[in-house]
Design brief:
Number of helices: 11
Oligomer: single chain
Distance between the termini: 79 Å
Structural class: alpha+beta
Length: 335
């Protein structure tokens, strides 16, 4: 009679064991990071929001602009943590989902919060002294308020990654599989909305910066919120006759703006640019004349519009390649 051999490996059981290990690791990470997150939320809520309210160092509109729904976000974390500590991941995360709108509100207020902090630190001596005093507390460990303010948006990205990992490593027969799947989907949707808000805010900052660089009557109204900034930089305009002329170009999703620098000794507008032309990218035919080899000699781009043709040159071929890709992207968005 043959002795029994080694136990036969079961792929299904091995897969389940891997799922369980990953699930346990993700659950532990979610719990530990939530504890730290709630601690930091509480520090700001206690030592900044609460004391500022009691002392009246900031008026209510300024305090609201600076912190947004911070205390409500802190309360949502306080509700979530006991579920995580009890191992009720699905129930806790699904119950947390109605609070996700707070993160959308926080993202929409992020730029206002940043500018309010800068303005108050600059012009409000009492507030500046208060912030330095609070940041010096040992509880903060040297972390500044400006580094703590983006915390909820950073945490939302962590929520998304961890919720998805939990859902993916929870078996379909688990009692909380459906809850985790629904929660992961809602958190991902919110994270995408927040990302869109953040991209729009960054684009608005670029547009405002470009508008500040342009001067003169022709520059008014050129930069609108419907445009998306893509890139800017110096290129050489090659005329039919004569020497190439350096010009500053600003590329948007729908237009290419060519500008020349104001004289450095100009009394009022030194350091700005005068708009020379605005070309609609929907009408652009783009060709790379030379500069394909990746060599050190630069390259030449040809941009044809209904009533004008531009030859743009750069001695930096890598820079020209970046321009070519960005121009291609802008000219392809014709509809």
């Amino acid at each position: 009679m043959e002795s029994p051999g080694p136990s036969v490996r079961c792929p299904v059981q091995e897969q389940r064991a891997r799922w369980e290990r990953k699930r346990a690791c993700t659950a532990r990470e979610l719990l530990e990071t939530e504890r730290r997150y709630q601690e930091q939320l509480g520090l700001v809520a206690t030592y900044f929001v609460g004391i500022l309210r009691a002392k009246g160092t900031l008026r209510p509109p300024e305090r609201q602009a600076l912190f947004g729904p911070w205390e409500l976000i802190y309360g949502a974390s306080q509700e979530l943590l006991p579920y995580l500590e009890g191992g009720r991941w699905g129930q806790g995360l699904e119950g947390f989902c109605p609070h996700l709108e707070l993160y959308t509100q926080f993202a929409a207020n992020a730029e206002r919060s940043r500018t309010t902090l800068q303005e108050q630190l600059k012009k409000n001596k009492r507030f500046r002294r208060f912030v330095r005093l609070q940041e010096g507390r040992p509880e903060f460990g040297g972390i500044q308020l400006q580094d703590l303010l983006p915390l909820p948006l950073q945490r939302l990205q962590q929520y998304e990654n961890l919720a998805i990992a939990l859902a993916e490593n929870t078996g379909p027969n688990s009692p909380d599989h459906e809850q985790l799947t629904r929660a992961a989907r809602r958190i991902s949707d919110t994270a995408q909305r927040v990302h869109t808000i953040s991209q729009k805010q960054k684009n608005d900052q670029h547009l405002q910066r470009v508008q500040a660089l342009l001067s003169g009557r022709q520059a008014k109204g050129l930069i609108s919120g419907s445009r998306w900034f893509l890139r800017q930089g110096w290129l050489l305009v090659v005329p039919p006759r004569g020497e190439p002329r350096p010009r500053m170009f600003f590329l948007f999703s729908d237009a290419l703006l060519m500008a020349k620098p104001r004289p450095p000794l100009h009394l009022l507008q030194s350091g700005t640019f005068a708009c020379q032309a605005l070309y609609p990218m929907a009408e652009c035919q783009l060709h790379r004349v030379f500069g394909h080899s990746g060599g050190p000699c630069g390259g030449l781009l040809s941009l044809s519009f209904p009533h004008e043709k531009l030859l743009l040159m750069s001695t930096d071929q890598e820079e020209l390649s970046h321009w070519y890709r960005s121009l291609t992207l802008a000219s392809s968005q014709k509809n």
